[in-house]
Every structure is written in structure tokens, then in C-alpha cells.
Amino acid sequence: MHRAGGIFLFLLLSSSTFTVLGLGASGAIPGLPFCSYTARTAFVKPSFTITPYGSNHSFYTFYRAYRNLSAIALVSGGMKTFYVTSDLDMFTTSVDRQGWGNEGDLYELYRGHLANCGAALALVDDVSVDAGALFAPDTGRRNFDTVILGHEEYVTLHEYDQFRRFVFTGGRLVEASANQFFGLITYDSATGKETYVRGHDWIFNGTVAWTRAAPYDRFLSRTNTYWFGSEYHGHRSINGIDEEFNIITNFTNILRLEPPYTPAYNDTTYIHGYGRGLVVCLCVAMEDQVGSNLLIRSFLKEALTMQPPRYWPPGGILQPQG
After folding, report:
1. How far apart are the C-alpha atoms of 46 and 293, rounded to whole Å?
2. How many CB atoms lie within 10 A of CB 36?
């Protein structure tokens, strides 16, 4: 550990090269030599997820209003199903493309880090990805080499397929949170509104909503396992804070990351190969700790360049070198 200009720096070994990682919440360290990084990189603002969490008239308003019904349906094990035709307007809400929710610190971390590396960070959001922003419309080639995700809980089917295709064709997808690809929504570009379809306790077909016998739909579980490598599992306390996390569900082309690489638990953080691309997943929703947790910031930066070995051992564990 070295001190320079009153700021502590750590030198972490990655792919046989040293990368300077700073302690500032934004990642920016003015005046220091920057690292070498040339990958075309985009950060996806999860607007489809920020919107219902940040609105007082949205999916979560409905969930809370009718939680007694969903709880009874769950306890009954499917013996009771409740149909609701009131308050259905809560399932449709205007997408907030300006707000940041809990993702602001995460974006600033990457923006500052890439600035120190002499690289730019493109900013797109869910609406843009759904419209095809990850690929060139004329050639179909990827517009980026690396895409960074935060809390990407709600997606359209088309957006979901864009992420999967991005990895399959050779892109690196860095998931810096957890509980991704969980809820299905539709998006109307003419009105700028998203509408809930399924994923949580309820299914909505546009005219009626009904309860499910399970708390989570997991409608994309099998597909998530195949290409992404994990799925949402629940909550656990990390540094005294209740955080969502995933568990690994695919042990083919998976490398679990152990300390010092993993900042949380070694059943969550991993590298997964799919097609010609790579998924690097923190898989713990710790955006609220980015500004205070050095290990989280260091890992998220290293995730941009971290490489798997030449061969994929089933259920393998990446051991620290040196």
C-alpha cells in the first residue's frame, strides 16, 4: 500500500499487469498516470427498475395494497387464487429516464475509473437498449465490447434478448448488482410507459391480475441459468445491511471467485462463459455500499479486465495467483 498526494492506493495484480485503483467514491484520481483500457464500454441505467421503485403509484403500490391476498395464496399452496380488477392502473407508469435510484454511485465509480484510464463511458438506459442501442442497425455488430449493469430487475423480452445476444456474440457483461432479469414488463415507446406483466406475486394480462402460488414467478429461471449462470435467491446481511443476492445455478463454464477476488460470498460471485462472450457477476446488490467499501470498488473495476483460464473446469474455483 502506497500513499500519494494524501490518497491511499492499492496495486492489484490482474492478468499479469498492475492496475492502479483509488479509494475515491467516484474512482477519479487527478494527476496520476492512467491505466491502459481501450474497450468500448457502456453503462446501462436501469430505468425500467428505477421507475416502479421510485414512484408512489406503481407496481409496488399495488403489491402493498393487496399483499394480504398474495400471502393467503402463497400459504394455500395454490389452492386459492385471487383475481383483482381494481387499481390496475398501478401496473402502468411513465418511465423515469432522469432519476438514478441507487445507481448513481455505481455509475460515477466506472465513469471516474475509465477517465483515469483515458477511456470514455457511454451512458444508455433500458429504453435505449430495448430500442437496439447495443448493436449497429446496419451491420448487426456490437456497438460495445463491455456493458455494465446495475439493478436490472425489470426488463422487456426484447431487451432481455439483447443482453443475451450481446454476450453470445463476444461481449463482456459485468453485473455489478443482483436480482437481474426478474420481472417482465412491456414498454410503449409512443406513450413512454411501462406495464408490469409477471415476475413477482402477480400476473397481469391487461384486464385482470391474479395471484400465484409461489412468491416469485421465475419465468426466466431456466434461460437465466443457461446463459447468465445464476438467479436471484433472497437476502442476507452484509456489513450489517440487508442485501439481495444470487446463487450460481449453472456449473458449466463457471469459475467461482474466492478471496481476495470475491467481496461477498463465494457462492455468488463468478465468471461465466457463454457463446463467445463472458459474464462477470458480483451478484450481490451492494450499490448502497460502493462509496464505503474498498473491496467492492476494487472488484468492480477489476471485473472490466478479469480473464478466465484457457479451459473451463466444471464447478471450478479461480485461485489467487502469487
Report:
1. 22
2. 11
Cβ pair 101, 50 in contact under 8 A? yes
Q: Which residues are 184's β-sheet partners? A: 155, 198
Residue whose C-alpha cell reads 414512484 in the numeric block = 55
CB within 8 Å of 246: residues ≥ 6 apart: 178, 179, 180, 230, 231, 232, 233, 268, 281, 283, 284
Q: Where are the beta strands (DSSP E) in 6-84?
A: 7-14, 17-22, 41-45, 83-84
Left (φ > 0), alpha (ψ -120 to 50) or beta: where does 218 sit?
left
Confidence class of residue 309 from pLDDT cuts 50, 70 and 90? confident
Q: Where are the beta strands (DSSP E) in 160-269?
A: 172-175, 183-188, 193-198, 202-204, 209-211, 230-238, 241-248, 254-257
All three cell numbers of 265: 460470498
d(CA 16, CA 179): 32
d(C-alpha 283, C-alpha 254), whole Å: 14
Q: CB of 318 within 8 A of CB of 258?
A: yes
Nearest 10 degrees: Cα torsion 293, 294, 295, 299: 110
- Per DSSP, the three-state class of 106 is helix
pLDDT given at position 233? 87
pLDDT in tens, 277-292: 999 999 989 888 888 8
In the chain, residues under CATH classification 3.40.50 are 2-54+98-182+220-318
**Choice among 24-33, 40-49, 69-78, 124-133 with the minimum mean pLDDT:** 24-33
CA pair distance 106, 112, nearest whole angstrom:
10
Report the alpha-carbon distance of residue 18 to residue 321 in Å, rounded.
13
Rounded to whole angstroms, how far apart are CA atoms 310 and 302? 18
Contact indicator for 290, 297 with CB cutoff of 8 Å:
yes
What SS3 class is residue 164?
helix
Q: What is the CATH number of domain 2-54+98-182+220-318?
A: 3.40.50
